[in-house]
Amino acid sequence: MVAVAMAGCAPSTSGGKGGGQDKKTGTVRVWLFREVGNKPKEKVVQGVTDRFEKQHPGVRVAVQYIPVDSRAEKIKGAFNDPDSAPDVIEYGNTDTAGYVADGGLADVSAEFDAWDATADLDPTAKRSVTVRGKQYGAPLFVGVRALYYRTDVFKDLGLEPPRTLRELAATAERIRAGREDMYGLAVGGAYTYAALPFIWAHGGQPAKEGGNGKFEAALAGARARKGIKAYTSLFGDHNCPAAKCAAMGGNQTVEAFAGGKAGMAIGGDFNRQAMEDGAVKGKYAVVPLPGVERGSIAPAFAGGNNIGVLSSSRHRSLAVELMKELAGKRTQERLFDAMGFLPTFRDTRKRAAAREPFVKPFVATLEAGTEFVPTSPAWARIDASLILPGMFQRIVSGKQDVVGAAADAAKKMDKAFAE
User: Fold this and answer.
1) pLDDT tens digits, residue range 295-334?
2) Between β-strands 303-309 and 138-143, what pairing exists: parallel, antiparallel or unpaired?
3) Radius of gyration for the chain, computed over Cα atoms and rounded to the nearest angstrom
4) What's the pLDDT tens digit per position in 185-216?
5) Closest Cα to residue 198, out of 227, 229, 163?
C-alpha cells in the first residue's frame, strides 16, 4: 500500500493553463497507482468506470496505472504540461499541501460540502485533503499502525499484551531477557511513523499551526520531549541494540518481526501479507499500540491515499463526479475486499471490520483518534531531509541528549517552514 506519499517531489507548475473549461463529453483521463498484485484493484476500478460511462453517454474513461517508484517525475510533468495531464489523480495524502501550493490540484470545496457521504468521513481523513479550510480531493483509503506480538513467545514467558507504553517497555525487556536471540520490540531510529505516536501519546506535537496558517516546530516542548525520551529509551542492549537498530526504518522492523527476530513490532494493516509470508505465520496477533494511561490507545499517524482533480482539467464536472465515485463508499468497500485497504468512511469501515476480524485493532485505533502531519508544503522537505530520524539517531547513539537533539531538530524544521 502506498500509505506514505510522494515525499520530496513537490513539482513546479506552469500556472494551470488549460483549466477553466468544462467539457461534458470526451475522454476523462485517470492516473492511479500500480500496486503490488494490482489485478484486484483494476477489477474494482473497471466496475466503477463501466458504470460511469453508462451514466454519461459520450464519455470515455481512460485509466492508466503509474509505477510508484517513478510517480514523482510523472506527476511533475503532468503539472507542467496540461495537454498530456490526467483529469483525475491518485496521490499520497501527505503531499496535499505541496500540490496545492504548486497549483496542481483543483479546489473542490463546494462539491465536497454538498456530498452527503462526507458526514461519515473520518475527521483525520478529511484533514488530509484540507488546506486552509478548503478541500482538494477525497480520501480513498487510510492506513494505520498497531502492535504486532508473538503469541507463542508471550505464552512461553507468561506475558500479557501491554496496556500502557510503560508496560510496553517492560514487556520488551522481559522478552529480550528471555529470548536473547530476539529484540523485545523491534524499533528503528529511521522509523518516523512509529516514533510519532509516542510524541502524540504524551501530548506533544512535531509542529503546531499559527493563526496565519504557518507552522512552527514544537519538538522542543516538554511534552514532545517526554515522547521522544520514551521512544529512544527502547534502544539498547536491554531491547533493541542501538548499533543494529538506530539505522532501521519501518521495513526493517517489520522484516525483523516477520522473520522471527522480534517479540513485538509496530506495523500497519498493510503489513499483514509480510507476516503471512514470514516465519511468524500462525504465531502472531495484533492489539492497538497502548497510550500513556491504562486503557488508552496511542494516536497513530493516518497514512493513506487520496483522489483529486487537477486544476488543468478540461472536464471539471465529470472529473469531480468520477472522483466521488472512485472514492465513494461502494468503491471503498470493494477495495477493502479486494486489496485490504481500510475505508475512510466510518460506517463502511465498521462493516468491513465485522467481516474481517484481523482489522479490528486497526479500526479501534482509528476510532480512538488519529493524527496527521503538518499540512504544509515544507513537510515533504522535512521528511525527505530525515530531520526526525537524525534526531532519534543522535540520541540513541549518545551524541546528544533529548533536550539538545530536539532543539536542533526544531531549528531545522523552522527553517524548512520559513522557506
Assistant:
1) 999 999 999 999 999 999 999 999 999 999 999 999 999 9
2) antiparallel
3) 22
4) 999 999 999 999 999 999 999 999 987 778 99
5) 227
CA distance 333 to 348: 6
Do 132 and 213 contact (CB within 8 A), yes or no?
yes
Reading phi first (left if > 0) and then psi (alpha if -120 to 50, else beta), residue 147 is in: beta
- Contacts for 286 with CB less than 8 Å, ≥ 6 apart: 146, 147, 148, 149, 358, 361, 362
pLDDT value for 15: 37
How many angstroms separate the CA atoms of 191 and 392, rounded?
Answer: 9
Looking only at the bridges linking them, the beta strands covering 145-150 and 262-268 are antiparallel
Segments of 144-238 assigned E as strands:
145-150, 183-186, 207-209, 215-217
Low-confidence ranges of the chain (pLDDT < 50): 1-18
Name the maximum alpha-carbon separation found in the chain.
68
How many angstroms separate the CA atoms of 94 and 187, rounded? 23
Q: Cell digits for 347?
A: 460506517
**Residue whose grid cell is 522481559:** 174
CB 128 within 8 A of CB 304: yes
Cα→Cα distances 308→71, 116, 352, Å: 15, 18, 24
The whole-model pTM stands at 0.86
Q: Output the nine-digit C-alpha cell for 76.
A: 511533475
Give the pLDDT score at 219.
97
b (16+ CB within 10 A) / e for 58-90: ebebebebbeeeebbebbbebbbebeebbbbbb
pLDDT at 72: 72
- For 105, residues 6+ apart whose C-beta sits below 8 A from its C-beta are 96, 99, 136, 137, 308, 309, 310, 311
